[in-house]
User: What shape does this take?
Amino acid sequence: MIDKKYTETVHTDPNNYEYITLTHDENKVRIYTLKNGLKVFLAQNFDAPRIQTFIPVRTGSNNDPSDNTGLAHYLEHMMFKGTSRLGTRNWAKEKELLDQISELYEQHKTEQDAEKKKEIYKKIDEVSQEASQYAIANEYDKAISSLGASGTNAHTWFDETVYKNNIPRNELEKWLKIEKERFSEMVLRLFHTELESVYEEFNRAQDNDSRLVSYELMDALFPTHPNGQQTTLGRPEHLRNPSMKAIHKYFDEYYVPNNYAMVLVGDLDFEETIQLVDQYFGTIPYKELPKKTPVVEQPITSIVKRTVKSPTTPRVQLAWRTDSYGTREAMLADITANILSNRGEAGLLDLNINQTQKMLWAQAFSVGLKQYGYFSIVAVPKESQTLDEGVDMVLEQLELIKKGDFPDWMLPAIISDFKLQRMKGLETAEGLATHLYDTYIRGRSWEQELNEMDEYAAFTKEEVVEFAKSFFKDNYVAVYKEKGVNDKLLRVENPGITPIKINRDAQSDFLQEIMTEKTEDIQPEFIDYQKEIITDSVKDKKLSFVRNKYNDLAQVHFIFPLGSDHDRDLGISTQLLQYLGTDAFSPEDLKKEFFKIGITNDFKTTNDQLLISLSGLEEHIEKGISLLQHWMFKALPDEAIYRQFAGTVLENRQASKRDKNRIMTALTTYTKLGKGSRFTDVISQQELESSHPEIFTDRMKKLFMYPYQIFFYGKDFDAFKGYIGQYTETASLQIPEPKQYPEPETNGQVYFTGYDMVQMEMSKVGRGHLVNTSNFGKINVFNEYFGRGLSSIVFQEIRESKSLAYSAYVSYAANAELGHHDYITTYIGTQPDKLQIAVDTMTELMTELPEVPVQFENAKNAALKQIASTRITRNNIFFNTLRLKKLGIYHDFRKDIYEQIGSLKFEDVKQFYETEIKPVYFNTAIIGKKENLDMDAVNQMGTFTEVSLEDIFGH
Assistant: This one.
């Protein structure tokens, strides 16, 4: 696939558009350049009648003005606010007020007196109130969702801002109209409420342990370059003192067609598509970009140490600065990272540290940026080890590379794995489109990108060793993440924003034009599972087969109707297996054997199923099955390894109790299911320490004696049937009865766990009725209309109108299995002094379902268009049948949902709300700093209980 030279060829299409293709490019990408400099990347993918779209802009936080950091990211948010034609009821009147607000922000930015700044902000708030009469919130999202778009989002990073949508193919022209509109001008409406939402995003980042370390690391690696001196979210003092004029200037300078691209991959016609892109975007004028003086960093000549503190488990991260992405140095750094860590399989860190459990965890990786990059190693020592000991252990592994002390087969195996991962990455529309925009952002050609594999393959072991000797010296940054109080947290007072009008019922002329313009509907296609899945049997085992129409990759799955409900310790048994060898292979050699043949193995235990999966090139699948079964049947129970394993499990449990996200998951589960849940029913410390490895390895040796079925995804089913029989035996053991876990009523309990953080996070969970598949269409539209997404009622009210939270939602989740309850969940993450009003707002919204006819019709039509243009492909064809079977369904149930939504009226959703949601009592989970709790507000929610980490984790 990769071992060919890719060369550019220039063509001219029938309409006289010139484009480039590459010989041997299996994806047949076409690259056009319009007269205004706009690059257009087009490729076809017919998995579904949809098109993955990206508009990557070659600018990000590195181009922020030094006195307005965070500007690129904030501008990205404002790109969703509309234009002078989209999102306004009266542009002339609104513009006059927005100009006043802009001038007030300039005064606010330069004013040094704190009290005078507050007075100016009050005036900003007043004028913003007046301006909001003319604004229509979320019109961009309403327009885009009316197309049946999904995945609407954007992100900002160092050198990129990328706008994303996945659209039905028949809505391409409308999508281009909408995007042309927002890329033509910037209107900063609803500015101060969105600014507050961005500040809440900043608060979330403060509570994110990884960002804490990353910011310190980048600051030390790049003491003068924007890579390290300008974070994407910006400095808090700049966020609090923005300049609307600076944002407009930035947009005018960088959002020009010669500085962004159009990436479209999917069910498209090349000639028609480029004509449409040119029709809408070809008229935007070319503009010279600002001249930038490159920032050149001085070499790091000594070890730079930094220390940060937070409540989580201690770790240390080392990093060496590299040259830019695509350079020889960056590529050698990437290879070296993979010699140390190759997806957790057979790297030196994988085998010598993780496999032998010398530390809790260690990993190497490299990051290539547009200018510079870095090679990094993260080490998480055990509690009995110091961070310095962790540093010494990972540096020892680097010394092995300097000595050439790694096997000769590893370099070719890494290159083969690179090729395999690229094959997987390019097989979907989104994967290919992502690769294309990434190539554009980095300033590389598609030719360079595709020929890159040959460049990697040309490196010799000697070159890697010489690189390691010259590159890895005492010239690195080390960030020590210690356990303690983070004294750098910024706790900011609520500025007191008056809720703005969001004019839910209003529509601009532009939106009405988009909504009334008809396109030929895409007809839904519902799958005939019996036709698409070929079945057979071997001995007493059912075989299922779905053909891979795309490439030479294959998967085999052994599916056991046996999960943790049947055997609580099944999961921990599969975990222990990862550390054990056999009579023929050491644990490390087993990993190497799998990596050599490019086969990955995965054991996934759920409450009712164990799924053992192998994936890789089809020609190696049989070798993988043979190796897998040898491993499971012949696993050697090693007492010393087991003792280490038990200690690692217990230490990881302690680490989980220090991680905010895992604590919130545990707390929410406890709030939902109480003490007697699967989450807390785990093997105890005493059982772990008093047990022996034979107990766990015996499970693995007997596993294939239980009933199971086999699913093969590949090309040659006959060949598979020819060999699979020798790896199966008739079942001789019966599946044990599963343990039944209660689903208790939720009845007004409030559970709190303390954690040192800036925000408060609150989730309410309510137990609904037993799952009823006849409600699925209503649930779909309810979630779209009311609870989730940028144009939902909840998002508009809590974020757009009142600026109370960066993230807030209400979600109705139907149970995946008959005989079990649905659950309704609400979530708010906000700073403590906003929590009460946020809770009150959510309560008010949920008291009576708001009726907004236009928004309801939009939600309904969006749901219909998404179903009509979605196709079930690849291995999902088979796995969907397993999911549906739990609901007693044996056909493509999307057909029923589509028909229900088609005839749905608001009264139906309101009735669903009245009977299924309104009567529900909720339990509440809250995490945050206890001193920030408003106990009067909490007591109004229900009976308050502070629960310990032991309560919610079960250990």
About this structure: The longest strand covers residues 760-770. Residues 91-110 form the longest helix (20 residues). The chain has 37 helices and 25 strands. Residues 122 and 496 are 9 Å apart (CA to CA).
